[in-house]
Specification:
400 residues; mainly beta; 27 strands; 38% strand; disordered N terminus
């Protein structure tokens, strides 16, 4: 990783050596002074040509077309960019998702070397965040070879390039140790069910304090969130018995609903996790006497009657008397939802929705419910998490 970190501060010197003629024959030596060329920030573009056969060649691979951008392929035999390099070749990327390269170095080959490539995306003449970077014999520029690992001559090199943005190190503190994995991620939108982070890392912490690094984060504003499967239940989403955390708060009643962490450089941030606890509560009121029947509360982003996917907030059994009872559950995904309560008075189950004689209600909708085919308002209106999310039910009618 030393080589990667040095690139940000020092790659400017490598790029200008191609113009100043600086090179080295056999790598650095303690007796050789470090070269100090005058920085040149204007790149000299060479025409896009079909590479001719040479002693070193292969392909640069990337995820989008970089046609017309200048690339550099560098050969060196140590990790010190300040003392020059053995050879550097530059040309322009061709159309498509790869560019073939081929050249003849001006020194004798026959050993292992560092071989890496840069695509200068901003034409700055320096290696800057946003440029593409890749190493031969490495799956990612964030895990470069630990030593010279590419034998030359070789005309079959394949260098996978990735856009090299910023590295975000997250120092995590948990209230205890975890029996399962911890997942840390950056989300460009609000935390939402079923949405994967743009940048994420999963690890098995060895203690209650650990760090993860999210590599290649594009500049922008994100929500940083994470949870640990503390009890080893492997539920997928955080649940009771787990630890959960969101950047800039430890209050589960006040989980940020919008991105609040600005990434504009390499940075280190802290994330404090807390025990999962209920952050939604309210009261369900029935139109008749409760008899110890099963109940469930569903949460959805669209009308459940229109086939929108729902997830269960909580389920249980009503009291055997009275007309109301309290409920609570944990909600990790802040936002506005439909919240539907069903009481299964005939014990027929919930797979097909309520049946005649059951109790049903929607948070924010006041009975009577006249149209059971379309009981939902046009837009969801219940913001979660929060307190006093009360639901008044009506009796599901028989055939009309």
């Amino acid at each position: 990783m030393k080589k990667v970190m040095l690139l940000f501060g020092l790659f400017v010197f490598m790029l200008v050596f191609v113009f100043s003629g600086c090179s080295k024959d056999s790598g650095s030596s303690p007796s050789q002074p470090a070269a100090t060329p005058t920085p040149v920030f204007t790149l000299i573009h060479t025409p896009t040509v079909n590479p001719t056969p040479g002693s070193v060649g292969g392909a640069l691979n990337y995820d989008v077309s970089l046609e017309g951008k200048q690339y550099f392929v560098v050969i060196d035999n140590n990790q010190d960019e300040t003392d020059g390099y053995l050879f550097i070749y530059n040309n322009l990327c061709t159309a498509g998702n790869f560019t073939n390269f081929s050249f003849q170095p001006n020194f004798g080959l026959g050993s292992n070397y560092y071989v890496y490539a840069v695509v200068d995306m901003d034409n700055s003449g320096t290696f800057t965040p946003g440029d593409y970077l890749g190493y031969a014999n490495a799956s990612s520029p964030f895990e470069p070879p630990s030593g010279p690992s590419t034998f030359l001559p070789n005309t079959g090199l394949s260098i996978d390039m990735e856009r090299y943005w910023y590295n975000v190190t997250v120092n995590v503190t948990m209230p205890g140790t975890s029996a399962g994995d911890a997942s840390i991620g950056l989300f460009s939108e609000s935390l939402k069910p079923g949405i994967s982070p743009e940048y994420g890392e999963e690890t098995l912490p060895s203690g209650n304090n650990f760090s993860v690094t999210l590599y290649g984060v594009e500049p922008g504003t994100y929500i940083l969130g994470g949870f640990a499967d503390a009890d080893g239940s492997d539920d997928g989403d955080p649940s009771y018995g787990d630890y959960v955390g969101v950047y800039n708060t430890t209050n589960l009643q006040n989980i940020p609903s919008e991105p609040n962490l600005n990434i504009n450089g390499n940075m280190t941030v802290n994330l404090t996790m807390v025990d999962v606890a209920s952050n939604v509560n309210g009261t369900i009121t029935a139109p008749g006497t409760l008899t110890g029947s099963p109940y469930v509360i569903y949460v959805s982003t669209g009308p459940w009657s229109d086939g929108y996917e729902v997830f269960t907030g909580v389920e249980g059994t009503t009291p055997a008397s009275g007309t109301s009872f309290g409920y609570d559950f944990f909600m990790f995904y802040p936002g506005t939802y439909y919240v539907t309560a069903l009481v299964d008075n005939d014990a027929s189950g919930f797979d097909n929705g309520p049946t005649p004689g059951d109790y049903a209600g929607i948070c924010g909708v006041t009975p009577p419910i006249a149209d059971w085919e379309h009981p939902y308002p046009v837009n969801p209106s219940t913001y979660l998490p929060g307190s006093n999310k009360n639901i008044t039910c009506d009796t599901v009618p028989g055939p009309q």
